[in-house]
Amino acid sequence: MKWLELLNVAVATLVAAATVVTLYSLGVRLTAIAADAQQTSPGVKRSFAYLCFGLCGLAVLAGLYLIIPYFSK
Amino acid sequence: MVALVIALALFFDFTNGFHDTANAMATPIATGAIKPKTAVALAAVLNLVGAFLSTEVAKTVSGGIIREGSGGVQITPEIIFAGLMGAVLWNMITWLKGLPSSSSHALFGGLIGAAVVGAGFSSVNFESLVQKVILPAVFAPVIAGLAAYVCTRLAYALTARHDPETGTKLTQKRGGFRTGQVFTSSLVALAHGTNDAQKTMGIITLVLIAAGSQAPGSGPQLWVITACALAIAVGTYAGGWRIIRTMGSGLTEVKPAQGFAAETSTASAILASSHLGFALSTTQVASGSVIGSGMGRRGTTVRWNLVGKIALGWLFTLPAAGVVGALTALLVKTGAVGVLIAAVAGSAAVLFMFFYSRKSSVSHQNAVEVEEAGQAVRFAKKKARAEAKAKAKAEAQARADARANNTKENRR
Predict the structure, then answer these.
(1) Where are the alpha helices (DSSP H) in B76-175?
(2) Which one is predicted more confidently, B228 or B101?
(3) pLDDT tens string B363-386
(4) What pLDDT does residue B373 have?
(5) Where are the transmembrane segments (chain A) (predicted)?
(6) Is A7 on the interface with B (CB under 8 A)?
(7) Within this chain, do residues B350 and B401 fall inside the same structural domain, yes or no?
(8) What ipTM was assigned to the predicted interfaces of this complex?
(9) Are B285 and B340 members of one domain?
(10) Rounded distance, CA B120 to CA B350, Å?
């Protein structure tokens, strides 16, 4: 039945969008913290921020990989 | 006849790209995250790439909705021509009147109307129509809106910064979202290519099947995919210049974080739907996201009557374009003269549209279709609220003064 597919779309949309936004927001927050004046280790936080951005990009690519039929065949 | 339909379909694709660039690229241009020229070129390239990604929606259009028929092919290129003409004419009417409408639904409506008149009710697969067009049309904007709401909440919650000791608000530093919007907008452009370019592919494939040059039930051929991808990319690029001119003329206030959340939701909803072959309107999904993300921000109220107006316009499109398609089909049925009249009327309409659009001044209202959805959410700004309060106070004061004066005069 198509209701199942509709549910599928809803869940996929929510999960994908939430993942991307969460990772990116964490990245933004960590960059903001690293830029604060009195920080003991801004370098570590900055690299964590880049890690978050990287993971976010990977999540997008993984999503596209799942969708493009060329790869799944 | 087949060549004529293909040309018309490609033109339809071109206008689609022409219209929808704004939806994807308006926000990053407005926030200054990306140069207009780069944004438009990027959108065009991504639309091109997106068109090659999947063919599920094209299969829905070519094989799902109109029955090719088991006992001989029922549908003819003439019927498809009538349907396309109906869609083009309806698009022109709504565009002139400034009604919110979806070109995708106009296309389906026109096609269905023409098929019913030309080949009878049995030629339309209503079950597939409900499942792959009508249900997604209702649910996709809601799903996208919900996702945008959740994501906006998430984005704001995760980046809210308070001083751990005093609890006062620190500078939020959400500038990173501005850069992020470049990527999310690109995703929206990509998603647009995967869904909208395929509708035209489906139509051309349907014509080829109807003309007997392709086996029923097969997917679009490579040259069809390439032609559609190019048409939508060129349309996107051409349409972009119109938007650049209008930029800076009062877009709805969208914060980068909010726009980021909305665009991510739009892109995921469209891509997920395209994957399952749901044909939906990108504009509607984007509108749903904009409203959803507006609700996710604090201190906003939704103008439900405006939302209702937009929704009504959506509901109206399919049957209305169906009627226009049916009328065109009646005309085409009369023979070669009818076809000629329809072709002339259609070309005249297209030409008129083209010249009118060059003549008329472009405002943000006709360039950005999502704009209306943005206005459906009212942001209660602190300053505006304070001003309103002050104004009310002043008025009350003035009234009190007037009353006092009146009583004084009465006493005299």
Answers:
(1) 77-97, 103-119, 126-129, 135-159
(2) B228
(3) 444 444 555 555 655 555 555 555
(4) 59
(5) 6-27, 48-68
(6) no
(7) no
(8) 0.85
(9) yes
(10) 29
